[in-house]
Design goal:
428 residues; alpha+beta; 8-stranded antiparallel β-sheet; 14 helices; globular
Amino acid sequence: MPIPVPHLTRTAALATGLTLAPLAAAQTTVPADPLPRFAALNAAIDRAIAEQRIVGTVVLVAHEGRLVYHRAAGLADREAGTPMREDAIFLLASVTKPIVTVAAMRLVEQGRLRLDDPVTRWLPDFHPASRDGSTPVITVHQLLTHSAGLSYDFMQPAEAPYQQLQISNGLNRPELGLAENLSRITRAGLIYEPGTAWGYSMATDVLGAVIEKVSGQSLPEAVATLVTTPLAMHDTAFTVRDPQRLVTHYGDGEPGKSAPVRMGESATVPFFGAPVSFSPRRILDDRAYASGGAGMAGTAADFLRLAELLQNRGGELLRPATVADMLRPHVGAHAQTQGPGWGFGYGGAVLVDPVVAQTPQSAGSMRWGGAYGHNWFIDPRRRLTVVAFTNTTFEGMAGAYVRDVRDAVYQALTAAGEVAEQIGGVQR
């Protein structure tokens, strides 16, 4: 059972301009630093590996547009003894969502898609019904904010339609095509009336289908055209471009009792008591549809480029007003999307109240994660971006490792500030 971040509910947990220093092909040591400010971060990483809470990790920290910390640690494949590399490729799971969201926002900027468009404008057959039999309008905005009335199979009881209809969550069931999965979601019906609540869901998979219709391209082609190619995210796609660098993924063990369990072609990992099914080889299966919510693979360095796009309010790819809209909490903190104090914008949870959330992050910070063991956040007020990818489900997404990395990074910022005051300038 994973150790949740304090106050993190089961529902909440599931969610450029950068000067990049060269990333070593097989970086396994701590990068040189003129100050011991990252000692706590190194210790947090080492402790998580020693306690067998994670198998391997890549952690990148950017501050004020500069890469100030980068480290690969642990193993990419434990059984083969393969060290983790900074250019390792991970199955991204829900880290896919902000990438697909940026693709949608680019279409909005181009005037080809509207946030208030009914989904049926683009997908006429997608009209899941309410419990009273009516088919209320679902908008693109509601897909982006996970307020569309949809859900995930693992968030529903075994007797519920999502389970009974065997709807793919984008991580499993590679035999299902997109049209069939959308049909099953339609038949499952709505969990709540669109716009009346927040519920983490298949909404971004539906958004992916909308993007295909709007762009006239497949989702992989559209995302490449709109996002990954212009951002030079060369290793990020709905396929694995270099399988030799793809890490082996593991499910949580029990700290102090058992090590993480290597995932086979199919695996089930409990999350807050509910089983979540995975098919790690899904991305290599030609039958599997490109899941807008969970279907991509990529590197930590690639994703840092996208996170810094949001950090820098768009640059040449998105207008500042568009990014500001993405970082606005369209769904308020009452939803507790990452626990108390967190709402939701377009692409991730947005921090509304740091005191209530008990976090050092600033109000307006955005964060999310990925079920295969990833977490990322941006703190625009502090100009801080952190990407922490692991190959361990769910500890790397919602366990103590997430909290420990976060706190250690802010400790390093505090130490850097104290030194800057002492020497009369910012340490470069």
